[in-house]
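Q: I have four molecules that I believe assemble together. Could you output structure tokens for the complex as a whole instead of separate predictions?
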Amino acid sequence: MSSQFQSRDPAFKARVSASFGEQSVMQLIGATLGTVEPGHVEIELPYRADLTQQDNFLHAGISSTIMDSACGYAAFSLMPAEARVLTIEFKINLLAPAAGQHFRAVGSVRKPGRSVFVAESELHASVDGEDRLVATMVGTLMAVYPD
Amino acid sequence: MSSQFQSRDPAFKARVSASFGEQSVMQLIGATLGTVEPGHVEIELPYRADLTQQDNFLHAGISSTIMDSACGYAAFSLMPAEARVLTIEFKINLLAPAAGQHFRAVGSVRKPGRSVFVAESELHASVDGEDRLVATMVGTLMAVYPD
Amino acid sequence: MSSQFQSRDPAFKARVSASFGEQSVMQLIGATLGTVEPGHVEIELPYRADLTQQDNFLHAGISSTIMDSACGYAAFSLMPAEARVLTIEFKINLLAPAAGQHFRAVGSVRKPGRSVFVAESELHASVDGEDRLVATMVGTLMAVYPD
Amino acid sequence: MSSQFQSRDPAFKARVSASFGEQSVMQLIGATLGTVEPGHVEIELPYRADLTQQDNFLHAGISSTIMDSACGYAAFSLMPAEARVLTIEFKINLLAPAAGQHFRAVGSVRKPGRSVFVAESELHASVDGEDRLVATMVGTLMAVYPD
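A: Yes, here they are, computed for all four components at once.
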């Protein structure tokens, strides 16, 4: 995993991991942190029947949960150690039904800034071993600094 | 609750309620169906610590879960009985931290169509009895008809 | 025109008007500034055949031009006198073809902040004297302060 | 220019070019059609002072004009000859001020469909010979077929 970005905080992996551990919703849905590189974060989610909408596909809100966090932590990985990260807004496009045995949200920073970051994520479904892109997200994140 | 729309299906409330009952994720997070009127659907969600992000606010993905379904069922309430509803895309703006004891997603149709619907939802938080608007969503939904 | 907002700058109307006058694209397309109230700005645009796409409707980019500026100046009207306004992102939903003799973009602030503002705008078309909502926008604006 | 897509219409280039020629707004702003490949369309725009906002950058609505058409024609290039193309919605993120001597909107289809297409575009500015990415767009397009 090569990256075009460098983190200003050598401890960025531990920082992302600690914050992810505090997102209690991730335990509820069974999501785990995957690859963490500067400006690039992946989140893994096995399919579960209790995460679905009326057609037994992953609910778009659950897709959003791991895609938003993948965007957020991709941005967070590039922030100075004292910053907090906040999502301002995001947009998701649902390209195909989120069916499959396993899902992976792949977040990457498109444009870093001092306070405003733009990040994107893709949701990949593993369907009988085949990889399918099922959703894309673009989001705006904010670095919040202590007063 | 007056509405500017009329449903083409007199059984729209039962139809929305049955479909909502099949969204197993709603049981996981503890969400329940509230008001259902033509083109207008509300979803209720009590705060739970296991639905949160790292700052103990409702995770934006959980907010999205109930706001997307509020949009979707608002559109679904206006569709003919044989149609299925599909979210194509949505955008959420997070106006304030989703803190509070109770949340209500209020979805309403902005523009109905034969196949494409535009709907909006607001997320209201109840904070010590006070109502606060914490997020807005706009989404595009599609009516899918049997062949 | 009542408003829920108060401007911190008593000269906000002159400030909006001066900045609008510097948007040279507005002269190119024939747009003029309409109502300016705290957190609320309207922009008027008569139909012209040279603003259209292949079906003789107003091009979505021209709709965006006046809707984005309506959002931006609605936010700008609430900012302190020394701030500049910058659009971070916006989303537009095209509800109906932008046909008609006259268009009015109505921008209003949904959530003011110190640095981040969320604003919305509607595009109304006048079609043989009848008012039609043809597009909606939600955008995020930033106040930029001198160092 | 290799492409992952194949057009179903061998005359897609002529079809895109003819439709672009009917977008009279393109002549007003001085935009011309560039590369046209299956699922990939570029639009060129030299800087002009009368296309700008108050800081002499290209107005976001003018950026949107060429980016929306780049998305739309990327989708249109993959549609059957009898279809018309309609933008349903788009979102633009402004990553940097649109300064420069020349702009190029690069549109590409992310997900084709029978009726719904998702496309993306990037806006590149040429600044003293250097290429800078200044905006990204994701949009939803619809193929409309004759009755």
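A: One point stands out. The domain at 12-144 of chain C is CATH 3.10.129.10 (Thiol Ester Dehydrase; Chain A).
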